[in-house]
Amino acid sequence: MRLARAGSSPIPSPNIWHWPEIYEVENRAQDADGAIFAALRDVADWSGRDVLDLGCGAGFHLPQFARDARSVTGVEPHRPLVDLTLRRVRAAEPPVTVLAGSAERIPLPDDSVDVVHARTAYFFGPGCGAGIVESMRVLRPGGVLAVVDLDATVGGYGEWMRADLPHYDAAKVEAFFAAQGFGLVRVRTRWEFDSREAMRSVLGIEFTERTAERAFAQTPGLALEVGYRIHTRRAPVGLVL
What we know:
Structural class: alpha/beta
Oligomer: single chain
Helix content: 25-40%
Strand content: 15-25%
GO molecular function, one term: methyltransferase activity
Strand order of the largest sheet: 3-2-1-4-5-7-6
Shape: globular
Radius of gyration: 17 Å
Protein name: Methyltransferase domain-containing protein
Pfam families: Methyltransf_25
Keywords: Methyltransferase, Transferase
Domain Methyltransferase: 51-143
Largest sheet: 7 strands, mixed
Number of strands: 7
Mean pLDDT: 92
């Protein structure tokens, strides 16, 4: 494990930067059926390969990649989260590298990884071109950039997301990725919590107070359906004429 630095001006995360403990509860609840990782394996299998988790947060997904990957690197711009990640992966096998850096300045050499995974971390359509270019730089020929983002068109969660982000245009975002040569896979999965209190706390960091209270009232039990999009772009193999 090693820690490196790279200068950048990251976009602050509105949830995990301020409430990492609650976001840990959210991470444990997300994808209760493993649907996202199953879909990822189909489009960007990381078995025996070198993986970069870009915007890795507190490193929640790093151990899962490390079970099958040849090597795993987590890159995160927020120093308190870098420190949390270092503690999480201290005893990981194989060892996990943790680097401070941003999507626009990835502290890795050209052609050094096979899979770049970015989950609800940075890429929101128009304006993220610099991050796409950097990801393609560090990918080896044939490698895959997989951008996993929430699908605002699906279910109650999508409705609450649209209520808080009235200017967010899901169709425009999808058109942007399509124009950049990305494929698209839609995934529906469940978030399942240990308690109603845990659910309420997570909704409270994801939405405005008014929307969070409505979401909580509209969700009986401990689970809710959430949609995701996986946008994938493969690095070219050989010369492009």
